[in-house]
């Protein structure tokens, strides 16, 4: 597996097993529960009078895939916009590594290590795959003003980065228009990995995709997870969500109608919940109760 992001080092001042740890701060987390890389607390976004998101809280952790599910208009894309610096919440907090931050632009979100794969998958179709991969950050040879673009190296890096997310046998010099929908998503995910993102936010395209292309996207999501990224994956499909998700955030009318883990639901529960509409909150509560009684 990749070693791109190693995470924080192990604490070195652990008390020995046989010593009481009562002089340690009480908010010390156990080492197997990493602090969220990105957290929303009580975020509300309004377009006019009706909130598109209402008091939404969520935590994204490294090496974890959080799937966001909900009907059209439930606030999924608005959530993506908040995490990507496109929309500023009217209320609530956004924290990176536990520190409150404001993301006033997509640039500021990227600077915090948050990479977004947009629903419309903007690519420059006439440019090569490698040009799209680097988008202005191409490797160069020599020193300015004698710097020259290193095309061979750019192709090689692109091909390797794509193989890392599961797209093999790619001609990086072909026009990006030749890429299918899933491959375009994989390209964006490969970019995020290569350029050192820590959080990957994916808004699944509404355009239909073949099973093979969807599988490619899921593979890329898992590659990102295994590299230690915190992944938020917006999808319409409970089946696909359950294949890759560690957590499931269900949105209904801009509110969190359910925040569940793999242990809480199987794929049938999840399908039922997403299709449930009015019953969503009630079912979520009863599932959680059942889980907590265990
Ligand atoms: N830019 C906007 N201006 C006004 N209303 C918006 C805007 N973006 C989204 N909305 C509204 O906010 C709600 C949530 O939309 P959205 O986040 O796109 O939902 P989803 O992605 O789940 O389909 C919808 O009622 C939508 O009409
Ligand atoms: Mg949407």
List all distinct small molecules, including ions and cofactors, that are bound in this structure.
Answer: adenosine-5'-diphosphate, magnesium ion
**Total domains:** 2
So what's the CATH class of the largest domain?
Answer: Alpha Beta
**How do the strands line up in the largest sheet?**
6-9-10-3-11-12
Count of helical segments?
9
CATH topology of the largest domain: Rossmann fold
| SSE ordering | EEEHEEHEHEEHHEHEHEEHH
Could you explain how this protein is built, in words?
The protein is α/β, with parallel strands linked by helices and 294 residues long. It folds into two domains: 201 residues, P-loop containing nucleotide triphosphate hydrolases (Rossmann fold), CATH 3.40.50; 53 residues, no CATH class. The protein is built from nine helices and twelve strands. The protein has a six-stranded mixed sheet, with helices on both faces. Strands 2-1-4-5 form a four-stranded antiparallel sheet, with helices on one face. Helix 6 links the parallel strand 9 and strand 10. Helix 4 packs across helix 5. The protein is globular, with a radius of gyration of 21 Å. The chain starts with 37 loop residues before the first strand and ends with a helix. The structure holds adenosine-5'-diphosphate and magnesium ion. The site of magnesium ion has 2 residues, from helix 1. The site of adenosine-5'-diphosphate has 10 residues, from helix 1.
